[in-house]
Amino acid sequence: MKGLNKFVVYIILTILSFSCTAMSKSLTVEIFTDSAHPVNTSTKDNVVIKYYNLDDSNRLMAKLNKKIGVMSPQKAKEVARQLIQRNQKQLTDAYKGLMLAYQYHIQNYPAIVFNQGEAVVYGVTDINNALQTYRLWRQKQ
Predict the structure, then answer these.
(1) pLDDT over 70 for what percent of the chain?
(2) Based on the number of CB atoms within 10 Å of its own CB, is 70 exposed (0-12), middle (13-18) or buried (19 or more)?
(3) What is the CATH number assigned to the segment(s) 2-140?
(4) Alpha helices in 35-126 (DSSP H)
């Protein structure tokens, strides 16, 4: 019976530890950069990372314009509508990054934003260095 009690206690503690971990707020990281400044996102930390390449909107629009080429306004309008429908998710994601950068008042990039604007680390191209800077800042708060 003692063995069974230890097993039940072990199961309960395991469940509680998973529940506490799930309830703790995870760190969210949003990276804003361009093609000239790629950011290394490899990390062992348990963080949720969203990567926004601010060049994506220009690249996608150039791709769409190239496919339209020179054609009548009516034909160009129809082709553009079809291309936008087919690339809607990519376009939405590209412009979402621009909107968020504007919302956060991002002035330079790369910019790594923590917890929806709580803090921003500029000029760092490695997520681990940015995380270290952020954690040092949090300790001082």
Answers:
(1) 82
(2) exposed
(3) 3.40.30
(4) 56-68, 73-86, 88-103
